Protein 1
Amino acid sequence: MKLGYRVGLLLLVMACKKDIPIENNSYNPIPYQLQLPIGRTWTQFPIPNENPLTVAGVQLGKLLFEEKMLSANNTISCKSCHQPEYAFSDGGKQFSEGINQLKGNRNAPALFNLGWTELYNLTGHRFFWDGGKGSLEQQVIGPIVNPIEMASNTKDVVYKLQNDDLYPKLFKQAFGTDSITIGLVAKAISQYERTLISGNSPYDKAERRERQRTLSEYNGMLIFSTEKGDCFHCHGNLSSAFFTDFNFHNNGLDEISLDSGLFRITGVPADRGKFKTPSLRNLVFTAPYMHDGRFKTLWEVIEFYNSGFKNSETLDPFISKHIPNGGLNLTPIEKTDLYNFLVSLSDTDFVLKHK
């Protein structure tokens, strides 16, 4: 590893007062104190007993999230496709570029408020667009070994990290052993991902009476939370902080979907074309939209639900009920109001904090 990078990495490790000095090679399981947003709906999410959050573990997880040695040719990291300045999405790309510029057929999802998935989704199909993994720890390994993403294998990853002169010390601090395993890699990155919490948008500030909503935002909120827009059935009513139901739906993108979604995992015909409901938070930063990134703008998304969805056997009933009317039939003013409400869900403080 180049000296300049090594020095920079060391400075990053030492940057916070809470950080454990790198010279200290002992196990230091100091609990990491999560800072939950202010508000009555932000309840604590479950943290696995076998992977508690610690200062050293989160610190290590952040370094690994940014570590290109996790890829086969040391060219990309998790951060390459989940960029903090875009709320941990991929900066406007429809499809991320993996190793050797290979592309898949799904848009890289944004990463925030992930810990609550394991609280509110009880099916075991929780992560990735098709619910292919049931826990954050399982999810972490997927991109590392995927042949069109990081295209590595677990043995090579462990070998490279084990033979680095920094990582064994950091694993010792975080987990009490300098013998690195892929399971510990997954635990560390998962710890870091659980700390990515977004809940300080203009909407949240209005909920706390720190600002006043515009009239357009208020009207858009009414459209969102009533049968007028029917958004709340899949994205949660206003008593929820997350703007997703953490579940899977066929939202009418195609009559016959080339990507079978949840059906690929379950084999249940009723799951064909169903994909995970994304949070509506941070939409300003996370374009393009849908599992395949087909819509470049939020206006396109609104127009799709207004008049463009397709019928199919597994179409969600809260969408199919609008078929007789040809869609939601929102007026131009109503579409603008809904847009302004959705934009108010974007948390600039979250982006600046992690940028």
Protein 2
Amino acid sequence: MNIKTVFRALRHKNYRLFFGGQSISLIGTWMQQIAVSWLVYSMTNSAFLLGMVGFSSQISTFLLAPVAGVIADRHHRHRLLLITQSLAMLQAIILYVLFATHTIAVWHIIVLSLFLGAINAFDIPVRQSFTVDMLNDREDLSNAIALNSSMVNVARLVGPSIGGILIALFGEGTCFLINALSYIAVLSSLVMMRLPPWERPVNRTGSVMQQFQEGFSYAFNFMPIRTILILLAVISLVSGGVQALMPVFARDIFHGGSKTLGLLMAASGLGALIGAIFLASRKSVLGLSRVIAIAAMMFGTGVVIFSSTPYLVIGLPILLVSGFGMMVQMASSNIMLQTMVEEDKRGRIMSFYTMAFMGLSPFGSLFSGVLATRIGADDTILWGGGICIVAAIVYASKLKDLRKFVRQIYVKKGIIVETVQ
């Protein structure tokens, strides 16, 4: 594996700044996330309230992402990111102050989770759309997206580990404070960027609702984008359920405790990190439509096998494989969408990606929780994995037509001259 190929997007100064600042900030984000979960459960001993906080942090993303996509297409993305990151910093500061003054209550956490979810609803599609603006050579877009995924998964591994230690030594408030301070890194990186003058979109006519309808029509009347988004939504629903039920597997099936849960989450995260590095090592977008089908099948098959094993030593490598499949499928979908989309609709398509990727996850968590009380966690996960396998087969059946459409787009954009693998 050529290291220069894996990290080639870092040759662009603006992206290098963003990568460094965002890496620090994401570690703080994951530290805060584990601290919030631990604090809520310590205060209430209620799994329901724990789930409610998780639901609150994501439902705003599902509801507001379509509007955010229109905003991303109409306004200066760099300035929008400065606003969203500043507001996220404010949320962390408020959380720390409430904790430090011993006035924090669960309703505070739920409200602040809703607030952060609303911020993320705008931040994620804007940040995804902004990736292309940081690159001088758009051929490095797929690599930058893959590096973004690897950055998230490194933080996913490092952040909770550090957070758990700090909670034990100093309490949850330390994680809230460190997260607030970590935003200085990403804000500084945004300020230091030197970007070309922003050009106001020529088609910025019509209301927000009209432009949303235009983006919706474009996405779901165009077969490649529609097909990719539907498969992504199915994988997201099931993965949300798998993550929500992981404590049940740790305690009731593998007969462990918090350390077992940590091992399970780390195995999935490590698989996702390997998947992101695999995508970063690819030199082009050629063949990604087939990679998506294989990765979705890997995830579904891994989930089915995991649901049936009573042994942790078998469950861990299976989770690594399913984590690899999930990340490769989701990141490859991001890459294909961003390379196919028309520039003036990039923000809106990324908002639909955000809805499918993150917005549906809380619904998967709620549905799996309800179903698990009736048929058990293992059978719930088994059915979820089966649904993913069926979805992957349906997607694969459309692969010939999908590649034909993608070929036409890539030839038009000059990405390829003759054929798409």
Protein 3
Amino acid sequence: MLNRELWRKHPEILEKALRDRGSEANLQALLAVDRKFRSLQAELDSKKAELNRKSKEVGSLFAAGRKDQALALRESLGALSEEVDALEQELAVVRQSLEELELTFPNIPHPSVPVGPDATANRVERTWGEPPRFSFPPKPHWELGCGLGILDFERAGKIAGARFAVLWGQGAALERALITFMLDLHRQRGWREVYVPFLVKQEALFGTGQLPKFAADLFRVEGTDLFLVPTAEVPVTNLHRGEILEEQALPLRYCAYTPCFRAEAGSYGRDVRGLIRQHQFDKVELVHFATPETSYQELEVLTAEAELVLQTLGLAYRVVTLSTGDMGFSAAKTYDLEVWLPGQGCFREISSCSNCEDFQARRAEIKFRPKGGGKAQYLHTLNGSGLAVGRTLIAILENYQQEDGSVLVPEALRPYLGGLSLVAPEG
């Protein structure tokens, strides 16, 4: 949620942000409802003040022995009280309309974000590693995985339908090893590991910005107010919903594993093969809470931590700053990490690291108390995948493939697999 004072005083800033993002949020409607809200609030305050003043006057008249005047004035207050009640009811309706409208507005991009309509305007910041060279045509992961007998889309389809996968044997072990490896790496470097519910309430999804805009992408548990988590960002950020933290405790850096569930509404026809766009997938998430003064330093720290996973696994990648038109709803700035996939001959996103500034904190009412004293302020929230586990598995299969269809296991993962160095067909 945006700072009301910002768009009230400088609507041109929000107007430019919406234009840069290609957002259809209606600024004029917001301003009109806000004008009505403030007008009603002023009228209500005036009527309440008048009611209060005249009520005191009634008491003074009684005290002065002027009973008839006191009774007459008190009788006239009934109509004024009814006006106050009516204004309060009208104001409540307008306030709800204003708050609902506010929820449809995306975050304002940071000045360093490139302006553009889509991914074509993204800016490559740096690259790491050299893509492997093969003496044979590299295969995509869906051919490798099925050939090894570790990846099964047909049986997943029998169980749950399209966009699900079954991992067998060494494939399942690799997935589990990756999760543990990532958590261990982050935990050993000072991130606090947390295990959270995989179901969340509506309030949590409103807090991080998935609701109301992205309701079609969520899986709701019928008959309840609970949703399957689309990302660990939701439960972890909401751990401190409604709290005031001490500045001395910041920054807070958490890591968490969750399965993630997304309907992928509107994505049909895209990435239909393989594991790229599934309804269910695993992620290890990094979530930071920081002061406004330090949050962009924290974005660099968070991004470097996600990069370290790729570096430790020996996977070539690039860091890209997303443009205004490609950036997520809640983000003020986002770096995407894109890993090289030789079987597909392209870079693909494997992590998005975002600074949401105070956008989520305002929605979730998360503040900090300055160490020098003073009024509590909204803190900044950040999140990033460290990493998307299924896509990391894809990258390992495609980058470490051998000519005979087997796959080398990166050194960093071997201790988690009992020393296994090569994934080959089982049996």
